[in-house]
Amino acid sequence: MSAQWITILGATGSIGLSTLDVVARHPQKYNVFALTGKTKVHVLAQQCQIHRPKYAVVMDVDAAQQLEVLLVSFKVSTEILVGIDALCAVSSDSNVDIVMAAIVGAAGLVPTLAAVNANKKVLLANKESLVMAGHLFMEALKHSSGVLLPIDSEHNAIFQCLPQGKNDLSAAGVSKLLLSASGGPFRGWTAQQMEHVTPEQACAHPNWSMGNKISVDSATLMNKGLELIEACWLFDMKENQIEIVVHPQSIIHSLVQYVDGSVIAQLGNPDMRTPIAHALAWPDRIDSGVKNLDLFDISRLDFEKPNFNDFPCLELAFEAARIGLDAPATLNAANEVAVQAFLDKRIGFTQIADVVKESMSVAIFNEPESLVVVQETDLKARSLATAYISRITS
Ligand code: NDP
Ligand code: MG
């Protein structure tokens, strides 16, 4: 088979780097069509020098000018494109086979949806887009000859443990999904103990190395909440069919329980190159560069129930999942604003949940029937969250 062309949205981020690491191990299988970034122009330029994509996309003219200077000095002929329309163009180009959706946050929604609509094999890391507009994705997928493969390690694990080719999971004997959670850097802490933690502490995850936003989400457990909603959409499950299992070693990435008492789990070292390689090659398997799991080295695996009281973001996400409508989009937007305010040291760690709770309590939820409605909800929730932050910080 000839090599496949891949576009990597968010190439300069943590998932983007891991994807390029796997791709570079298989030059006969994958060619890089386009790489995209926003602020890390130097990283993008170096990636272009190594991987020689046809296109590099940045989000503004300043970044494009900086990139141009670097590419000229490297003698690289990659064409530079700018803006959201360019992200959609490199996601839907007829020469592209695979799109890695690894932009962080709501900004990933439009180009990821463009890839689904263009019948691509879409590797979904950008969970926020599914949380915001799950039904639009699922509807688009029904009309697409492409496929959506989960990159989030838990969802990738569940995908691997499910019976293949069966749409109705209850008819296939699946009774429950068990979603693993590491518990984050503050597992076992009380809300009071977490009041004064710094962004540096929140971003120091014990098992995974990730971008700042998802690191903070992992620390508040909002990441698990977003993943709950992500799992509901991906596997057509209700939130009460999904249980969160805190498993501090991050070796079992998630489990599927069947009606006959069987529980199937996927295990591996905590390294995102495993789900990335799995989805890239699916339905085949390729080397990911991840070292083999040594069970003797691990020796024990622990499990705990999540602490909803001290980590209120998890309960807020369950509530959004129960409400449905555009409540998840509201939750997601308020959380993005709150996490940024925490990273900027404008609010404290435990105030992230306050911002989300307040925004959810004043929002009026609607049917998210179109992309325009979802984007309006996103903007409204951002302004509610911003107004609340101004009130508590003035
Ligand atoms: P990073 O912050 O490391 O990377 C984000 C990427 O998105 C960067 O390339 C960044 O560009 C780009 N970007 C940021 N904002 C915009 C914007 N407004 N428009 C266009 N591009 C933008 O994040 P991660 O790689 O950690 O995470 C990416 C996604 O994958 C998230 O949705 C996350 O939840 C999900 N995920 C990540 C995991 C991980 O292990 N990291 C695990 C599971 C899921 P630049 O850096 O150049 O500014
Ligand atoms: Mg995950």
Task: Provide structural commentary.
The longest helix is centred in the C-terminal third of the chain and has 23 residues, at 371-393. The chain folds into two domains: 4-151, NAD(P)-binding Rossmann-like Domain (Rossmann fold, 3-Layer(aba) Sandwich); 164-270 and 302-393, Rna Polymerase Sigma Factor, Chain: A, CATH 1.10.1740. The chain is globular. Helix 3 links the parallel strand 3 (55-58) and strand 4. It is of the alpha/beta class and 394 residues long. The chain has 17 helices and eleven strands. Helix 10 (212-220) packs across helix 15 (327-343) and helix 11 runs parallel beside helix 14. It has helices at 14-24, 41-51, 61-74, 84-92, 109-117, 127-142, 153-161, 191-194, 199-203, 212-220, 222-235, 273-281, 295-298, 312-323, 327-343, 351-362, 371-393; strands spanning 4-9, 30-36, 55-58, 79-82, 98-101, 121-124, 147-150, 174-181, 242-246, 252-258, 263-267. The chain starts with a strand and ends with a helix. A seven-stranded parallel β-sheet has the order 4-3-2-1-5-6-7, with helices on both faces. The chain has a four-stranded mixed β-sheet with strand order 9-8-10-11, covered by helices on one side. The chain binds NADPH dihydro-nicotinamide-adenine-dinucleotide phosphate and magnesium ion.
Summarize the structure.
This protein is an alpha/beta fold and 394 residues long.
Descriptive key words:
2 domains; binds magnesium ion; Rossmann fold; 11 strands; binds NADPH dihydro-nicotinamide-adenine-dinucleotide phosphate; 17 helices; four-stranded mixed sheet; single chain; 48% helix; 394 residues
